[in-house]
Amino acid sequence: MIETIEPSSSTTTPDTFPPPFIAVWQHHHILDLDDFTQEEIELVLETANAMAEVLTREVKKVPTLRGKTVVTLFYEPSTRTRASFELAAKNLSADTVSLDAAKSSVTKGESLIDSLCTIQALGADIIVMRHSQSGAPYLAMQHVKCSIINAGDGWHAHPSQALLDLYTIRRHLGKLANLKVAIIGDITHSRVARSDIWGMTTMGTKVVLCAPSTLLPRGLDNFIANCRLPNVSIETKIEPALEGADVVMPLRLQMERQQSGLLPSLREYIQLYQLTMERLSLAKPHVLVMHPGPMNEGIEISPEVAHGTQSVIEEQVANGVTIRMALLYLIAGGKSK
Amino acid sequence: MPDRILMSPEDMQRALVRVAHEIVERNKGANDIVLVGMQTRGVPLAKRLAATIQGLEGITVPVGSLDISLYRDDLSSLSLKPTVHRTDIPIDVSGKQVVLVDDVFYTGRSIRAAMDALIDLGRPQSIQLAVLVDRGHRELPIRADYVGKNIPTSKDEEIKVSVKEVDDEDKVTILSPGKGANDRND
Amino acid sequence: MPHNLIISGGHIIDPSQGIDKIADLLITKGKISWIGDKGKAPSQPDLHTVDATGLIVCPGFIDLHCHLREPGFEDKETIGTGTKAAAKGGFTTVCCMPNTNPPLDNQTSIDYVKKTAEIEGTVQVLPIGCITKGRQGKELTEMNELAKVGVIGFSDDGDTVASSRIMSLAMDYSQVLGLPIIDHCEDKELSDNGFMNDGWVSARLGLKGMPKAAEEIVVARDLALAQLTGAKLHIAHVSTDGSVELIRRAKEKGVSVTAEVTPHHLTLTEERVMGSQLKENKQLAYDTNAKVNPPLRTKEDIAALIKGLNGGIIDAIATDHAPHTLVDKMCEFGLAAFGISGLETALACLMGLVHSGQLDLKTLISKLTFEPARIIGTKYGELGTLKTGCPADVTLLDPNKEWVVDSHDFASKGKNTPFDGCSFKGRIIMTIVAGKTVYREDL
Fold this sequence. Notes:
The structure holds three protein chains of three kinds.
Chain A: H1 38-54, E1 69-74, H2 80-91, E2 95-100, H3 112-121, E3 126-131, H4 136-141, E4 147-153, H5 159-173, E5 180-184, H6 191-202, E6 206-210, H7 220-226, E7 232-235, H8 238-242, E8 247-250, H9 255-259, H10 266-273, H11 277-280, E9 288-289, H12 303-306, H13 313-333
Parallel strand pairs in A: 1-2, 1-3, 3-4, 5-6, 5-8, 6-7, 8-9
Helix pairs in contact in A: 1-5, 1-13, 2-13, 5-6, 5-13
Chain B: E1 4-7, H1 9-26, E2 33-38, H2 42-57, E3 63-66, E4 97-105, H3 109-121, E5 126-134, E6 146-150, E7 158-162, H4 164-167, E8 171-175
Parallel strand pairs in B: 2-3, 2-4, 4-5, 5-6
Antiparallel strand pairs in B: 1-8, 7-8
Helix pairs in contact in B: 1-2
Chain C: E1 4-14, E2 19-28, E3 31-36, E4 47-51, E5 56-59, E6 61-66, H1 79-88, E7 91-96, H2 107-120, E8 124-127, H3 143-149, E9 154-155, H4 164-175, E10 181-183, H5 188-191, E11 196-197, H6 200-205, E12 209-210, H7 212-229, E13 233-235, H8 241-253, E14 257-261, H9 263-267, H10 299-310, E15 316-317, H11 326-329, H12 346-355, H13 361-368, H14 370-376, E16 394-404, E17 423-433, E18 436-440
Parallel strand pairs in C: 1-4, 1-5, 6-7, 7-8, 9-10, 10-13, 11-12, 13-14, 14-15
Antiparallel strand pairs in C: 1-2, 2-3, 5-16, 16-17, 17-18
Helix pairs in contact in C: 4-7, 7-8, 8-10
């Protein structure tokens, strides 16, 4: 049974509490978590906590971002992330516009920069963008003044996902420091894994990356060493990765990986890396099963585990809206440097 | 000019007791009252009022806390103080006499935001306002129903309210012009 | 006919003759006519003087590897603009690669380049012909005909001849002509459309990497084929320590191989993709100006390349000048074109190695003059030298002049440089081609 440590919802508010801490929010954009301090991540999680209360109301709306325009610009298909951002924006009373690259003038050959400048000229305050090329948001921020929130760029980063992962873990386990999180799957192509590495190590969490060696970047060892991330380790076997883990996060295996020769077969991947109930028992009894979604049930995760008692996968989706409301709030108010 | 203490701990306590009496008197008892403290210092003040009312009427008045960050009319000051605390009101406010409790009453903008928040949470029968200090300079047509002490100030002065539960001591000070206080009075 | 010119009081360094002294140099009728002590030059009519006090005077630089983009890609560069850029960079001869459109795999296209260079070129342009027709890697070009038209070697640069069989045939066939096969060594299946070096930076940035082995595999193959056929092999833009080692061993065995390295591979690492150290903002920049093929590698590779240069394993320095339009570079990293516009920053960037003591000035000049001339051969006369009677191709440079790179000032159409905003110490002051001043710093 998972313990849930609910924030105070008792009939009396606590008698003593710390005075309001004055944080300085430095970000005009949210591109990746590699430049977030621990205080800034704490701020996002605290803010999300307040946002969560709004989502318990019957009318899930506050006027905070009234008059602001949030444009979602997605060059890659996505159901949950895009809907999540749009709902988050709407809950804060922002106006939202969603642009789907397949339908817009991108197919006519309009460059990314042109599209962004057009969107800025139309009055966008915040652009939420997802792109198949790593680094696209960094190009974007050099050309427009709007705030950019990265909803996923190629293999590189997915900061809001990592933040909602941290939020989910702390809600259940009460802390982040010194926990062991096992991320299992295609690390090479995973922007979720990379952002989780940054976010989790900043908060003192230990991260184990587990994958067949063809799905681990060759430079990963040096990346960990050069960026001074002693809390990150690598395993090619699943058992040591799962041993004593507090959180297990299998990643979606794209079918294309087998087709492009990175794996001999899905069958072999399943035999060696699928998260089954039996393998899950290697982890701590309170282990959380998470997944960035969408899942390939029967491939990286068995249906029993996906829908089992340790799974918080559905809750991650709800927390996504909460976190994204917090990010939109903090970005909308932050002063540009 | 050095800081001046305008209310001692005893002054504060007496004012709060009187306000509690007034609340009970005007509402003809303590039924249907909900005390909602404005984050941050309004919350312990609301709890003290509840305790006094408990003593007077033998009734436990529910106490909630309200964070108006999501209702403010300007986001630009966010970067100085972006922390949003959770709004936590344990009962449905619909049909109740909600008494907002705040430490300092100044321009009235916080209270306007608080009223918007309350109305989003339900349909109170009435909203009343209790403040420890009223320093004047209203920018909106809002008045307080219960006032601990009226302290006329000039715009470049700052009133600082310290409460034991947050600041380890009770007092109300007026800061000389030019000295920034930690809290913006609203 | 250009004026008679006396270059006075400069520090003359001519590796081809072993000259390294302060002296005067006399140019008459477009040729070097005399080098000797100051003030002792034979008198000449219509004599102009250039005061070269404090400057280095050396043979004009020769670039074995540059892309002039004409015909076909005139928006990126033309022979006119490219050669102006060469002159600004102190180059008096450039060898242009044949990946134009149409490619230089036939007489007509090469004639076009030669003619255009004659009319619009600022410096001497020597063509390189394709190894295979259309650079498709399938059929050899008519190498004999191309040799007659004046190519100084053969290359499918931009691509590698993937088939070892075709490559060995090319080497066999070209051997008779005595012209080198210049190979861009890249196993494209292994580099698999990667964007930068396969290492920790690509892992961090989530970019597909091109492993060092992709270059080394083809270098090894080419060396084996050169040994087999006895042909002249020239390895273009060497970038890894492994390649240097392979070339070293082959030279020890007596294989007929020469090699070149670019200024950017000698001075920049893969970390440059993460952004310029100049900008205050510490965010990753995915700087497309650092996207080049072969990619920028590691400190260890740079150390090996410098050692290789000093040890003679790498014979020459060539720019691989690759200009691109703004549109081709100002886009997502994965979609950006590969290449650095390098003619105008080559010397300045290399002087950094001289100032830090890693490279001797004489060695540097030799790698830019004497050695490339040796690889080209005497088809076009004696190049890279200040021997009397030779065409007066002379470069004057100030080894200590400080300046800041501004790509807007480039004569090249290509403003794509990772050195924008960099402060350098070392600058070309004057470039003379066949006795004519084609570039002066103060003009």
